[in-house]
Amino acid sequence: MADTRFEVSRTILVDPSTIFQFLCDPQGHVAIDSSGMLMSAEGSPVRTVGDQFVVHMDREALNDVPLGLYDVNVVITTFTLNEEIAWTVEGRIRPQIGHVYGYRLTPTEGGTVVTSYYDWSNINEAWKERITFPIISEGSLRATLGILDRTLRGQHNAS
């Protein structure tokens, strides 16, 4: 499975419920994106499997596929309050790609071990030859965790 999924973890000195609440907010995804593709988002914080929000994207940041500006729907596939949230991305293309991004939160003394994962094991066969996977690198996931840590500590210190 290592060739179709990776995970990275980081301890963040913030409680799981605060982190989870942040990850439910569409604006939170844009704020911590290290890929540079997420430009803005529209929608309410998610509360259950099946909830969705729109993200305005720009693939120019990856310099791999000339898609220009486009929108995707983030569709929640896993939602366990304060423990795990995951989603797939749906867009205009058919069939949908089928990759999944997510976070697992594990309480630890003084904070939370946050595990970010990216799983492309169930991508649609139509895309396996057309797109190089993974789209996002393991380093990008790690960088996003660093931005999450910095962002939440900044909010915590401001309150």
How would you sum up this structure, described in words?
This protein is α+β, with helices and mostly antiparallel strands and 159 residues long. It has one domain: START domain (Alpha-D-Glucose-1,6-Bisphosphate, Chain A, domain 4, 2-Layer Sandwich). Helix content is 26%, strand content 36%. It has helices at 16-24, 26-32, 125-128, 138-158, and strands at 5-12, 38-42, 52-58, 69-80, 84-90, 100-108, 111-119. The chain has a seven-stranded antiparallel beta sheet, covered by helices on one side. A hairpin with a 3-residue loop joins strand 4 and strand 5. It is globular, with a radius of gyration of 15 Å. 26% of the residues are buried.
- State the low-pLDDT regions, or none: none
Query: What Rg is obtained from the alpha carbons, in whole angstroms?
Result: 15 Å
Distance between the termini: 42 Å
Number of domains: 1
What is the number of E strands?
7
The averaged pLDDT comes out at 87
Summarize the structure.
The chain is an alpha+beta fold and 159 residues long. The chain has helices spanning 16-24, 26-32, 125-128, 138-158, and strands at residues 5-12, 38-42, 52-58, 69-80, 84-90, 100-108, 111-119.
